What we know:
Bound molecules: zinc ion
Oligomer: single chain
Distance between the termini: 34 Å
Largest sheet: 6 strands, antiparallel, barrel
Structural class: alpha+beta
Strand content: 35-45%
Number of strands: 15
Helix content: 10-25%
Strand order of the largest sheet: 2-3-7-6-5-8
Amino acid sequence: MTERVYYTSDALEMETDVVSCTRQEDxxxxxxxxxxLFHPQGGGQPSDRGTINGVPLLQAIQDGxxxxxxxxxxxxxxxxxxxxxxxxxxxxxxxxxxxHIIGLAGEKFGWLGxxxxxxxxxxxxxxxxxxxxxxxxxxxxxxxxxxxxxxxxSRIITEAEGKRLVTxxxxxxxACGGTHVLNTAEIGDIRLIKMKEKKGQLSVQYELDA
Length: 210
Ligand SMILES: [Zn+2]
């Protein structure tokens, strides 16, 4: 089990221990740490990038309760210095946080966000209709989203029944394992590119400033 320090900390650097480093058939190395700052691929949010003892991290993935760091080269057993790529983290955090805001805005029209991809350049939220959905146009949704971002609410992370709940100010919390901006204003402009309906679901594509 890897302690996920990014759940409780926005730090981009820390010291930890290498539990194992194994060479894979493709020539890459799988590194397990006792604790990590790297957010893995999952929940619609792409993996962090960065280095472990100066060795580039290609991708972090989840394997049960363990987090596997796929590395370009080997990392020696013992102490490890982790460094998260700040620019990549910031962009992923803003894209992921935008996913929350779009979901919250959709709920005002009676639509529930059920799936999300928060990948820069391919941001997407898929909505299911709740019991009594109202028609949701791209313009109306965009207006609601803009209003939520401009509330400049501060991040609140709590825990209930073993679930990590994340929201800003008085907005509704979602159970979530991603990384989140401290204030909704940090997300900036959320541009809705297109909305399409398929089998009763609404799919909304979005992008942010890089
Ligand atoms: Zn989240």
